[in-house]
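Hey, quick one: can you model this chain's 3D structure?
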Amino acid sequence: MVASEDSISIHLDPLPVLVGAGECVVRAGWIHSKECQPHHKLLVSEQGVFHIVVDEEPISLQPGQYAIVPSGSLWEGTSPACEGDRFWWIIFDESGAKTLHSEVRLPIVGSLEDPEAAKRVFERLLWRIHQKSGSQLGLQLGVAEVIWELGRQASGRKKEQSAGNKGHMLAQEIILHLRAYLAEPMDVRRVAADCGLHPEYMRKVFKEATGRTLQQYVRWLRMEQAKRLLERGELRISEIAPQVGYEDAGYFSKMFHKETGVWPSEFRFHQIVTQNPDGEFYPFVDRPDPLTHKPRRD
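Sure thing. Here's the predicted structure for all 298 residues.
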C-alpha cells in the first residue's frame, strides 16, 4: 500500500490477506480507543457520523463514506457515537512482491456512489467467512472484490475518466475472476459472463490494459502460484500441478521449465536451500542426485 497526501494505492496481485471483517452496531456513548493499527483497516459508515483522528488528521465519516487506515497509523475516536450507529470494517494485509497492472488507487476518505452495492459485495465476503468452507483463496478474492468495488465507484465519479482508465479497472475485475478459476481449465466465456462482458470485447480490453493476452496472463498467474507453493516445500510436484490448473504433472513441469528456464524441483531446491542454509529441509524437498549433483525431478 502506497499513500500520498489524499490517496492510497492498494495492490491486488498478490491478493490481499484477510485478517478480519465484521459489522458493528454501537451503543450510545461508544468511542474507539487509541491504537496503533498493525494492519490496513477499511471503515465504512452506514448510519451515523464517526469522528476519528488518523495520525493527527481529523476525519468525519458520514453515512455512505469510507476511510482507509494504513498499517502503522495511530488512530482513535474523538466523539461519542449515538445509539444504533452502524459501520462495517475489513482488516487486511498486502503480501509478496507487487506486480504490474495490479493497483487500485483510492482516496483515503471517499464517498460511495452506491453504498448498497458495496455492502452486497462485503456481505458475500462475510458469507464466505461464516460458511467456514471457503478456501483461503476465496477469502482473499472476497477482500479484493470489496477493494475493487470501492475503486470502481471512485473511478465512476470522475467525469473526465479516460477510456484507458476504464479499461484498467475492467482488467482488475477480470484478473480477480481469473484467479478464482486458476485450478480449472481456462474458460473465457465463463469469465466473460462473470464480468458481464462479451468474450471478444473482454479479450480486447484486457490486452490493451495489460499488454498480455488472457492465456499469457493465466499462464503467468499459474507459474507465480506454483513458485509460491514450491517455496513452501510442503507438497510434491504431482500435488502442486492440479492446484495450478495442470492435471498432468509432467506437462506442468515442461511448462514451468519453458516459462522459467528451470525444472520445478530445481527451483524448489534452490529456494529452500537459500532460505535454510543450516540444512533444515522440508519433507518433500528433493536431495541432489549423488551422481549428477542436481536436484532429482519429482
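One thing worth noting: The longest strand covers residues 17-25.
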